[in-house]
Amino acid sequence: MKKLALTVFFDTLLLICLGLIIVLTASSTISAIKFSNSLYLFNSHLIRVLIALVAMIGFSFIPYEIYKSVSKPLILFAVGLLIFTLLFAPEIKGAGRWLSIAGITFQPADIAKFLLIIHLSAMLEKKSDYLYDFRNAFVPMFIWVVGIAGLILIQPNISNGLLIIAIALTMMFVGGIHFKHIFLSSATMALSGGAIAMIFSHSRQRILSFINSIINGGDMNLQVKQALVSLGSGGLLGVGIGNSKQNNLFLPEAYGDFIFAILGEQLGFIGSVAVILFYLVLFIAGILIAKKAQDKFGQLLAFGITFSIAIYAFVNIAVATGTFPTTGLPLPFISYGGTSIIFLSMGIGILINIAIMNSKKSKVVENDLSDKKISEK
């Protein structure tokens, strides 16, 4: 388990360092034009990265069992924070998703997702003896999922809301909830989420544009078109670090949601595949930690954290390659951002702690068995 913890740590560190390099190159032009300082956005990202690394190391030393006892207050805090966001968040580009407190700007959806994973893990362990019971097991969990996701969907933040539902329902399935309940709720939530997405103009436009580009060969939106140009320009080996042309204001959000396209342009197909493999290694290591954990809470918490990182990476890369409609979701550990990288790093710290704590538990069990064999002889 300690080897898995080290794998997770160094794999994440590598992704973060790579992100620093790509953010530096992708943000220099817009920083120079907008802020008269080519390092402005990079410096801002660097501060967040340092906070994220401190958070990762700090949370790796906190025994993960603590979160189980405070999961209810934490999820109530998440609900309160999301309601506060709906009431007081300033509207930016047609959505109120961000809060600014004491000069620190953050997205409450990132916090809510993190706390929902903790609470669902605690509930699934607590109700492990009657998980097939629809009313006493499934419904209480589903209410929390609907509450958190619903408050995020109506911000509107469709992509984050839908992915939180996907993560929650997958955790519930893995945790032992009856598949029939999962399937029916998934279908209902998918239809509801689709309906909400079509109500808001920006999400409706993205979806219809994506469908039109597939069925009728219509033009993709500007970001996707320029992202594909960027990826295609990279070829097999890339144009080299710092030699991207698309980051010169051709590709909007080059340092954020579409950073994978800039990465592909600079590092080429081989570099892009290598980054995908880093995420795959992180996913496999996280799943192994979940599998080897000796308590259900640890298993589900490790799985939830790992799966959430993997699905966000998958969706971001799918958007950058034109496979999915534009979502506005960051690439984990690489995209420019604040709360995303900080809370992802907290999750990695918890994942590392699960591996370390269960490694110690395994040694205790082994020593007890060894002492028992000796005493029997």
UniProtKB/TrEMBL annotation:
GO MF term (any one): peptidoglycan glycosyltransferase activity
Residue stretches in coiled coil: none
Domain of life: Bacteria
GO biological processes: cell division; peptidoglycan biosynthetic process; regulation of cell shape
Subcellular location field: Membrane
Enzyme class of the recorded protein, top EC level: transferase
EC number: 2.4.99.28
InterPro entries, sorted: FtsW/RodA (IPR001182)
Catalytic activity entry: [GlcNAc-(1->4)-Mur2Ac(oyl-L-Ala-gamma-D-Glu-L-Lys-D-Ala-D-Ala)](n)-di-trans,octa-cis-undecaprenyl diphosphate + beta-D-GlcNAc-(1->4)-Mur2Ac(oyl-L-Ala-gamma-D-Glu-L-Lys-D-Ala-D-Ala)-di-trans,octa-cis-undecaprenyl diphosphate = [GlcNAc-(1->4)-Mur2Ac(oyl-L-Ala-gamma-D-Glu-L-Lys-D-Ala-D-Ala)](n+1)-di-trans,octa-cis-undecaprenyl diphosphate + di-trans,octa-cis-undecaprenyl diphosphate + H(+)
Keywords: Cell cycle, Cell division, Cell shape, Glycosyltransferase, Membrane, Peptidoglycan synthesis, Transferase, Transmembrane, Transmembrane helix
Membrane-spanning intervals of the chain: 42-62, 74-92, 98-122, 134-154, 160-177, 182-200, 267-288, 300-321, 333-356
Keyword Cell wall biogenesis/degradation included in the entry's annotation: no
Entry GO CC: cell division site; plasma membrane
Membrane topology recorded in Swiss-Prot or TrEMBL: Multi-pass membrane protein
UniProt similarity note: Belongs to the SEDS family. FtsW subfamily.
Annotated protein name in UniProt: Probable peptidoglycan glycosyltransferase FtsW
Taxonomic lineage: Bacteria, Pseudomonadati, Ignavibacteriota, Ignavibacteria, Ignavibacteriales
